[in-house]
Amino acid sequence: MIMMFLFSGRIAAFVEKHPTVKMLALSFLVMIGVVLLIEGWDAEKAHDLHLKNYVYFAMAFSFAVEMLNLQLRKKSKPVELHEPHMDDIQPESK
């Protein structure tokens, strides 16, 4: 827990700087939620299918691909997302 507190600021800054990592983390959370639902439905069947092995492999592969992408884009400026402003929204014409 102490390690989490010590590095949380750096990790948050890294994730904020690289939006693709944010999307990857969100997809991991969704995938973990689906696995938990499947295991809650029928734990023995999920164990027989080796579901966790497939999920861990998919997560590791996705993470490796994202790290390669970050290395490839290291020389270029990272993607910046801009929040919409109320001034940008045009009223509908009637």
Structure write-up:
This protein is an all-alpha fold and 94 residues long. The chain has helices spanning 2-17, 19-41, 43-48, 51-72. It is built from 4 helices and no strands. α2 (19-41) packs antiparallel against α4. It starts with a helix and ends in a 22-residue tail after the last helix.
The biggest beta sheet, please?
none
Mean pLDDT over all positions: 84
Question: What's the multimeric state?
Answer: single chain
Unreliable residue stretches: none
Name the shape in a single word: extended
User: What structural class should be given to the helix and strand makeup?
Assistant: mainly alpha
Which range does the strand content fall in? under 5%
Question: What value does the Rg take, in angstroms?
Answer: 19 Å
- Spatial gap, N to C terminus: 56 Å
What is the number of E strands?
0
Structural key phrases:
single chain; 94 residues; mainly alpha; 4 helices; 71% helix
Q: What's this, in brief?
A:
The protein is an all-alpha fold and 94 residues long.
